[in-house]
Amino acid sequence: MLAAIRVFAKSWVAAVLMGVLIVSFALWGIRDVFRGRISDAVITAGSRTVSSADFKREFDRAKAQYEQQSGQPIPNDVAVANGLDRQILEGLATREAFAELLRKMGVQPSDKLLVAEIQKIPAFFDPVSGRFDKKSYQQRLGDNGLTVPAFEQMMRDELAEQQFGTGMVAGLIVPRSYAALVAVYGLENRDVALLPIQPQNVAQPPAPTDQQLTDFMKQNAAQLLRPEFRALTVVRFSPAAVAEAGPVDQAEVLKRYNFRKDTLSKPETRTVVQIPAKDAATAAQITARLTKGEAPSAIAQSLGVAAITYSDKPQSAIADPKVAAAAFQMKAGQTQTLQGSLGQAVVRVDNVTPGHTVTLEEIRPALEAEVRKDAATSKIDTLTQAYDDAHTKGASLAEAAQKAGVPVTTLGPIAKQGVDQQGKPVPGLTQKLVDTAFSLPAGGESELVDAGNGEYFAVKVDKIIPPAIPALAEIKPQLTRAWMLREVASRMQAKAEELAARVKKGESLDAVAASAGIKVARLTGLNRQTAAQNQAASQEVLAQAFTGKPGDVFTARDARFGFVVGKIEAIRPGDPEAMARTAEAARPQMTVAYLRELEAAARAAARQKIKVHIDPARARAALGIEPDTAKPAGKPGLAK
After folding, report:
1. What is the second-level CATH architecture of the domain 266-352?
2. CB-based burial label for 70 (10 Å; 0-12, 13-18, 19+)
3. Which of 112, 225, 296, 640 would give a disulfide with 82, using CB separation of 3.0 to 4.6 Å?
4. What is the topology classification, in CATH, of domain 229-245+362-465?
């Protein structure tokens, strides 16, 4: 093979090919052969891109919000399976498309405006000077995982959107006729007559047979199904359980006191005013003016210097060590000219707050509690090590606990919700213990689990009771009551439909009610704005009342256990003055809603105008999830 290659290299064909390569390198350059374009973009919208790291940061931020709402951690694969990655991708794609469209339209803030807006953000101020500080700016961005270019691009986008929005909405308000329609609709008055059908208006059903209850159970099997229960054996290691109540080693208490005394004590603080003086004559002038009560800032400004005020600060806070030492020897109200390391200055002490050295007796209880806690923690370490050694060598949970000298307890049966078979909470449970127990098979034993706060536990699943429908005998009274209520409701509904049919055929509602021995109730002046405040009518009744026309008859569930036959007796327009007031009050709200629709339309238009490329596989890879294992999300929406 090598010999054949050498022969080919010496042939005229190889010479021609080499010449072609040389010409191509001369025309197009050699760098592009080796340079290769490698993109990390998850989203590309025109000239704008979102990297994998940017996507992951947005994903983590959104997931953290869901975790805070749910009160428990959410693994990435669970969040992806519920479509959170697609939701974030779609949101970012729309944002980038809108920003790119604004750029093409020429809506871009100037550099001067950008700098001015950034310098207004208090998070970037120096705590001493109270002004924008470049170091604080860079450090705060770094603490939040942002670079200066990335943050400034975010600011540019935000300012561009503000400029676009301001131009779009300037002077915009919906027409008065729009608000008038809302007022007419909301204040329209309706009179409704209601014939209530209650349990006493129908014959009571006989008690159900066992066969009827059995059939009822089958019909409601999903609601009656009891969850899985588990019986557990638990061994716990808690510092509180092994803490000793006897005397504490006072030598250790004293040692800790001596070590922390300085940090626990409060140093003396003073309020000191310092004005630089170039010579003795200037110092005398400053002293005289201070004595007369003139403001230090005014004196300093007239001399072209700056007064420095240390408000309630310790000696270490004063920049000049010599001035600090001398100022902390002066009395409150005293003014003195001092020669410091940085020059001469006039110093006045306005206030002195004495320091406080904490005594051993003041913090003895806390130190003793700490020593006891540390001793208990050390003992827990010894016990857990003894348990772990025995368990690793093959001892069961109970045997290992016995060798460690720790008692075991039995719990349950309990459900995954932490309740017993009667639905009552089981004391002594933690969510971590329950989750661990329900991750094991029957007979399975966990390793030692860190429960937090220096506590540990191990759990064994003694028995698993699978989900099952309870026996009829166990729930017969409750089931009988539910069956009776269903039958009564069915009879009331049938009665309501029977009476409604008579009214629809021409009988008056009052005559039908009288024949059934029921009194008609009337609701007058109902309108959509105040209907929800009416406690006498259910939502179902109100829905029927506001969707029909005069003379319509309907049946609906009552606000209480029952049904009603209703009739719309009249529909009247609202009061003109009230409608006028309502219309004017509604215009601002309608304008805001209209503007939101305009904004949504603008963003949708950006998605159509700017061709956006989304790479879901790269996005999932940024989250550490293999593309072929993630369930493809359908229509993007909120994570479940």
Report:
1. Roll (3.10)
2. exposed
3. 640
4. Chitinase A; domain 3 (3.10.50)
